[in-house]
Amino acid sequence: MPATLEFERPIQELETKIEELRKFSTEKGINLTNEIAILENRAREVRESIYGSLNSWQKVLIARHPERPNAYYYIKYLFTDFMELHGDRCFRDDPSVAGGIGRFNGRSVTVISHVKGKDTKENLARNFGMAHPEGYRKAIRLMKQAEKFKRPVITLIDTPGAYPGMGAEERGQSEAIAKSILTMAGLKVPIISVVIGEGGSGGALAFGVGDRILMQEHAVYSVITPEGYASILWKDSSRNREAAEAMKVTAQDLQKLGVADQIVSEPLGGAHRKPEVAADLLGQALAANLDELVGINTDILVANRYEKFRAMGNLAGTY
Amino acid sequence: MVLEFFRKQKYIAVQPEPVNRDIPEGIWVKCSRCNEIIFNKELDKNYKVCQKCGFHFRTSAYERIAMTLDEGTFEEMDTELLPVNPFKSAEYEEKLKAARKKSGLSESVVTGEGTLRGFPVVMVVMDSNYMMASMGTVAGEKIARAIEAAVEGHKPLIIFSASGGARMQEGILSLMQMAKTVAALDKLEKAGQLYISVMTDPTTGGVSASFASLGDIIIAEPGALIGFAGQRVIEQTIRQKLPEGFQRAEFYKSHGFVDMIVARTELNSTLANILELHLRGEK
Lengths: 319, 283
Ligand SMILES: [Zn+2]
Known about the structure:
The complex is a heterodimer.
Chain A: H1 9-28, H2 33-52, H3 56-63, H4 71-78, E1 80-84, E2 97-104, E3 107-114, H5 120-125, H6 133-148, E4 153-159, H7 166-170, H8 173-186, E5 191-200, H9 201-205, E6 212-216, E7 220-222, H10 226-233, H11 240-247, H12 251-256, E8 262-264, H13 275-294, H14 298-310
Helix pairs in contact in A: 1-2, 3-11, 4-13, 6-8, 10-11
Chain B: H1 2-13, E1 28-30, E2 37-39, H2 40-45, H3 61-68, E3 75-76, H4 90-103, E4 109-116, E5 119-126, H5 137-153, E6 157-163, H6 171-190, E7 195-204, H7 205-208, E8 217-220, E9 226-227, H8 231-238, H9 249-254, E10 260-261, H10 264-277
Parallel strand pairs in B: 5-6, 6-7, 7-8, 7-9, 8-10
Antiparallel strand pairs in B: 1-2, 3-4, 4-5
Zinc ion binds at residues 31, 33-34, 36, 50, 52-53, 55 of chain B.
């Protein structure tokens, strides 16, 4: 069973009770079918009620859930013959970013993603999905390669943000992110960007200039972490819940704001509860969008992408 | 005026610790690097650079325009674009009001066209007096429009960046301005138009990670703070103090991300030289 979040306690308590009853029933040979059914019904209601009305902060917690499927999970599940390609040809291979070529629905595509680790050890190796400039430069290289061979690009976004460290600054974190955005803006192949967990700041946007921006149901995407927002604007990082609400970070918010084009459903309670179901749903959404995009003439595709980002923020059409 | 200047000088001379004294605002200013007390009019004459130590004071957008463009040639664009409050936050409304009062501007960016020693240019200037020149949706819109004006008018573009980064109060929409402005620069790039980026103090966050870092030529002012992450955030992450000069213009140049550092007193002639070298028979 996945690690329980604070607000999931009532669900977990019921699930534990059901488990105990089952065990008791088998061990003692007593028929408890009715009692178990009642509790299961109750658990379903509680699940639907809790997961059906998640607030922004709870969504942040699900998006950051340690067992949430990471990009590798989806890559392995959805892309056949995936071949990872390494390095920025300049400094090193950044393990926070994965990229390569694979087959999706019979079509060759380039996949680029942030990668968070599945456990502490892998997270340390992957720097918790926080890329250095060389990660973005690897991505830029692979985007240009995709353009050369006319392969669509799929980016999977899942990062708390670009890494704020000395080496990152020395090697031009700003320039690397800016170049990645520039490369995507003019890239002559279809791009689909999906936020699969946490979309944090410029580090996320560096992979986010797609013809389509998809967000998984419980993914979040924001200009700064709620903790950062609360600490800078209110000098109180404990007001993270309030900050998450104020900033509008959920997939549902972003769709209303015209940033996310489509929300990809997740299994009840989040992708980590049934990763295969989440991956199937993501695969369906990718396939539908890709089919539409590959038919569009390149010049029109790039012009549409321009108009899409050009209009960002002009909510009321005031200018 | 001259008389007043000497009288004040004398007055200072009799004070043992002039730096601790209350300085009447608007007449004198203390250099934040060398503590020299400088007569405002003198500072303005020297492009707001301390004559004693070379410290570059921050400038307002209109001061910058006056220092850069030929007198009377600046025509401002999009003055009717006023900031929006997308999430209807009362707190943000107050901040906007205070920023307007402090800076005398309606947004953090001033854009327009003019000539620089006779060369027609499109110019964008960010003003740190307005909410640390953070980039919200309207600032992004003004910058994108200015870039498009450069593309359409076949004019070189000069952007003077100064910014603490994205305007957090506008949430994800402010982040998207990075993509919006950079996409516009892609058009300029493909049109073969010149873009000179001038990084002034401070050029950080979402602004440094978008248009500011994409100039054909990137100039930085001496001592300007330039970087992606805030210094406090880096220090908290790596759990150590940052060395002196980290993320300053000189650091950024030595690491290969800035073409040259130009003192403000030389900036106008440097820009004119660059424009001259890029002439393709248009003048
Ligand atoms: Zn000085």
